[in-house]
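Form 7-S
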Amino acid sequence: MVKVDAGGGDRLALAVLAQYRMATTEQMHVLIAPGVRIEQTRRRLAKLRDEGLVDRVTLPQAGRTRAWFATHYGAEVAAEWPELREWQPAKLGADRTAARLKVGHSLTVTETGLAFVQDARRRGDVCRPLDWIPEVYHSLGGGEAVIPDALLYYRRERDDGEGWSMLRAFVEIDRATMGPERLASKIHAYQRLYEYVPVPVGRPRGGQQPLEQAWQRRYRKFPRLLFVLDATGPTGVANRISALAAGVGLAGPGFRAEVPMLAASLTDLLRDGPSAPVWRPLTNPEQQTSWHA
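Output:
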C-alpha cells in the first residue's frame, strides 16, 4: 500500500522528482521545502525510497552528492495525479544505470528550473516547482516532434502594478555536446512547430472552419524560445550566440516577428538571476535584456 501523505509533502516530492527526471538532495530541498531544515527533506526522500517510489545514484566526483529520481513504480503512481497532466514519463527506464548515464544533463535542467523558481519567489511573481515541465512532446506529424528541454510557465506582475502577465517559454539547455550549427538548427524545428497545421482525418472538403496551427490548441501565444548555454567559456558562448543569431536570420519573417528568441550563459543566469539583463536577443545579439522584456 502506498503511503504518500495526504498533507502534500510526500506527494509534492514525488511529483517534482517524476516531472524533473532527477534532482540532488539540495535541489529538492530548495524546490519543495526551503523554509525547514534540510534534514527533513533527507528524511522524506529516505521514506519515499523505503516505499519503492524513488531511488538514487551517488556521484563520486561531486563530494558523493546523491541524485534522486522516481522509480517505475513512483512514476506510475504520480502519472495518475491531475497536477502532472502535461507530464509524460520518460521512455528510458527509471533505473540506476539510465539515471547515471543522463545525470549531467538532467541536473543542469533541474538547476535551470530552480533558478526561475527562486527568482519568482524573490520578485513576488508566481513560478511554482511544477511550473517547470521537462520534455513536453509537441507533434509535427509523421512521427516527428519537437521536445524542448523544458516548458516554463511564469506569472509576472506587470511593471505598472496593474495585474499580471502570463508568460510561457520553451527552454533549450545546451551543454556544448553538439556543434553550434546543430544547435542553431533547433530554430528551424521550432519554426516548423509554429507553422504546423494538422489536417483532421476525414475532414470534408470545403469545410467552413479554418484550420488552426497545432500549438494554438495549447497556448494563447506561441511560447518564447530561450537558449541556456553551459559547459563552455565566454568565447564558446559568443560563438554559439552568433550561430543562433545566424539561424534566426534564416527563419521566416513572421516567426521572427512573433516569437522572442534569446540566449544566455548559465553562469550569468545563476549569478544574477533569470530576470536580470543577461539575455541576448537573437535578432539583435549586441543588446542585453531580461527574458520577459
